[in-house]
Amino acid sequence: MIYWIIFGAFTAIFIGSFLREKRAFRNSIFLALSLASLFVAVAYATNGTIVNTLLNIVLYTVIPLILLFISFVFIYAGVIAIKRERFSLAHSLSIAFGVGIWGAFVAVAVTISAKNLSTITMSMVVLIALIAMYVIFTFSALFIYSQLYHLLPKNKNCDFIIVHGAGLLNGERVSPLLAGRLNKGIEVFESSGRKAKIIVSGGQGSDENISEAEAMKNYLLEKGISEHNIIMEDQSTTTLENMMFSKKIMDQMMSQYRVIFVTNDYHVFRTGTYAKQVGLKADGVGCKTAFYYWPNAFIREYIAIILKYKAVPIVLFLLWLAGTVVSMLNF
Asked: For the chain, what is the domain count?
């Protein structure tokens, strides 16, 4: 009974938080806790039945196999990204993530099979396990919720469409990734009855001959969008500034308005959190991302979001440190 109460509590908290603000990271954690508590509740309620056996197979066989499969996919995607683009830390993240999953499995295997491990060795194994559990849980939670957020129905009858910029090819041409965003923006524009204003948002990088906004505007003009419907925001250098400066433009034009922002699918949720941060009520629409690019891109999104919430990992580290010290004193 207690497990069903816990499931009900986490579900109620999630629903309340979701209805209050759809763009909050806490929603992903509450949803994951709700799903995990449901799994535990069903497992205890079906003890001794075939359902319980199937749940054990899922927990001890299917989930580990899925994690190993994901590790191979991420490593493969990282190798392809490096071959197609170039070697960089950003393009190596998925490889590190995939190898890290294997490291966690090795740590667990060592703990189970080894005997008479030293206190220091055991504490390092525990630390690796804590990090792995934290990363896997929060990463999975963010992935599940961001997909849910991306699939939420959007009212495309809007006054403004913000298309977020990205790096240019040869300093002046729209890249395939940016073209995908612009094409999705045109799709939303058509859905709005061609009445909305398209704000192309992106400044000029040190290696670019023109601003991203200007390149985006040129692309839209080539696609038959009237200059009257295009507004340039060419000062921003970050996603937060994209939202902040675009909001300033819209506030000057209208007191009340409806807005849709367009970016890549992996970037929709974090962009939504920035919209919330600047006080902008906006729905996000994402365009598809190339397979090899997606893992590295989503890991960057995960890192950017998780760095805003340092308290939990710090507490876990302090608990580990305290446990290690106590173990050494008692040794």
From this structure: 2
301 is a domain residue: no
Q: Are residues 239 and 118 in the same domain?
A: no
Give a yes or no: residue 86 inside a domain: yes
Alpha-carbon span 176 to 215, nearest angstrom: 13
Structure tokens of 232?
């340039």
How far is it, in rounded angstroms, from Cα 25 to Cα 143?
Answer: 11
| Segments forming the whole domain that contains residue 205 | 160-289
Q: 3-class DSSP state for residue 88?
A: coil
> 165 and 216 share a domain?
yes
Q: What is the pLDDT along the chain (331 residues), one digit of tens a residue?
A: 798 999 999 999 999 999 999 989 999 999 999 999 999 999 999 988 999 899 999 988 998 899 889 999 999 999 998 888 778 777 889 999 998 888 877 777 777 676 776 777 777 777 877 888 888 899 999 999 998 988 888 777 899 999 999 888 888 889 888 999 999 999 999 988 888 999 999 998 877 889 999 999 999 999 999 999 999 999 999 999 999 999 999 999 998 999 999 999 999 999 999 999 999 999 899 998 888 889 999 999 999 998 888 877 787 777 777 776 766 666 5
31 domain residue, yes or no: no
> Shortest CA distance to 293 belongs to which of 108, 127, 76?
76
